[in-house]
Amino acid sequence: MEEELNRLRRKNDELEAENTRQKDDLRVVAELLVRLRQLVSPSQQLPTRDDDIESLVSSQIGELHDGLTNSEKARIELEEERDRLRTELKYLHERAQISLQTLEQAQKQLAETRARLEQLQRDVAALRQVVEHVERMADGNFGRGVDQLRKREYGVAVESMTAAIRLTPWDARFYYFRGLAHYKHGKLKEAEEDVKKGAALERERGSSGAAISKALEFIQGADRQWLESFRPK
């Protein structure tokens, strides 16, 4: 009986010690919570009664639990926003890659077009040199034909004008002077055909009438009147 009583006493002492320890632990927790809360609300004080401490700890833990729940929701929302932004970033990256490819293709096409344009410019320059050379040759034949016409060498004048026409068949002067050479040589049909052709070119190509009239200055009298009757008015 005595042993059982002693055992019960020891058990009671252990329970009281455990209860005291738990209260101390609660007080420590309460102090920590109050310190945390004082960071937000400095006026809050630590209660002295055990029941009040337990109530404070319970309410504070509840608030912390709610805070953790809200934080978890916020974390989930942030993760969803992160995933959405990643998806959007991936989409934009793909679009950027497509745009970059399109830009590279456009740059390549532009470079090819520029190369073709440069080649065309070189071809045009070369062609212009050829045309200028041909026109100089035609003008040389024309000049010889005019001299021959002045010397009344009508046959060779026709040949010189014909050579000029083969090189530049768009110059009205050549037809006028070859027609005049035919006219002076007595070949009226050929003469009329040539001056009509010259008049058509002068009209269609908008040739300078003043320049043609200057070239015809030395042609006067009946010959000039005959030729002028075909020219555009």
Fold and architecture overview:
The chain is an all-alpha fold and 233 residues long. It has two domains: 75 residues; 102 residues, Tetratricopeptide repeat domain (Serine Threonine Protein Phosphatase 5, Tetratricopeptide repeat, Alpha Horseshoe). The chain is 85% helix and 0% strand. It is built from seven helices and no strands. Helix 2 runs parallel beside helix 4. The longest helix has 101 residues. It is rod-shaped, with a radius of gyration of 57 Å. It starts with a helix and ends in a 5-residue tail after the last helix. The model has no long low-confidence stretch (mean pLDDT 81).
How many helices does DSSP assign?
7
Per DSSP E runs of 2 or more residues, the count of β-strands stands at 0
Determine the structural class based on helices, strands and strand pairing: mainly alpha
Largest sheet features: none
Mean pLDDT: 81
C-alpha Rg, in Å?
A: 57 Å
The separation of the N and C termini measures 157 Å
Task: Determine the strand fraction and express it as a percent band.
Answer: under 5%
| CATH homologous superfamily label of the largest domain | Tetratricopeptide repeat domain
Q: Per CATH, what is the topology of the largest domain? A: Serine Threonine Protein Phosphatase 5, Tetratricopeptide repeat
CATH C-level of the largest domain:
Mainly Alpha
**Helix-strand pattern, N to C?**
HHHHHHH
**So what's the overall shape?**
rod-shaped
